[in-house]
Amino acid sequence: MDNFVQCQEGVSEIVFFDLETTVPNRAGQRFWVLEFGAIVVCPRKLVELESFSTLIRPKDLSAVALRSGRCDGITRDAVANAPAFEEVAEKIFSILNGRIWAGHNIQRFDCVRIKEAFAEIGKPAPVPVGMIDSLGVLTEKFGRRAGNLKMATLASYFGLGQQKHRSLDDVRMNLEVLKHCATVLFLESTVPTLLNRKWNNSPITTRSRSNGKLLFREETSRKSPPTTAANYQRTVPYARGSLGKVSEGVKNLLCKAQETRSINRLLKHSHALLR
């Protein structure tokens, strides 16, 4: 697609992109780009706006394996009739230039390969306005809870399936992994006591509606302490000024009540006193 849909005026879209390349097996060999894939994402909604992918034929076809070690890997036959990089360079430039770049380990690998490919055809490389390398972000924020933080490991951790090592599939998986990680981190920062199973004695704020207005109150857990004279007086739902008139009567009732007397009978006497 030649033109990418704008997310919102004044908002830079995020481009998740990925390259598939040859893997040098001896010193002196170079990386050849075999596939480019990208999705443009609205940063405010995290929805995919557009996508583009293409196989790329390297100048040295012999560098591409006849058979791939991966089930969906790229073979020599797959790229034999694909366009050369210079044929798709203009489109790749328009997708990447002036946008926020995002991807997994792109700073050390994909960005370098993009610069090399454009330099080889004598054209200026695209320039990002920002960079989101999910490997660096997750290393700092998410930690090693999911293992080695490779995309395949993260996808397995969240049950997202196997990494296919194809550009468009991988960038979509990258976005889903980030969504899952962000959700976990958000929950941990918002309700840490709940997630750490320390919520039994923590007050929980709830909401209820009265005459169209939201009222907030604090509720304890089911394991609240039993009602006693001390905490019963603290929770009597009357204005502070009226407590003096009834406090002595309530106190006398509580003192005379037997431990086995039901709370319902106690409340009945209290309400009678207030009439």
Automatic annotation (TrEMBL):
It comes from Manihot esculenta. PANTHER family: DNA POLYMERASE III SUBUNIT EPSILON, PROTEIN NEN4. SMART domains: EXOIII. This is Exonuclease domain-containing protein. Keywords: Exonuclease, Hydrolase, Magnesium, Metal-binding, Nuclease. One of its GO terms (molecular function) is metal ion binding. The keyword Nuclease applies. InterPro entries: Ribonucl_H, RNaseH-like_sf, RNaseH_sf. Residues 13-187 form the Exonuclease domain. It comes from the Eukaryota. Its cofactor is Mg(2+). The keyword ATP-binding does not apply. Pfam families: RNase_T.
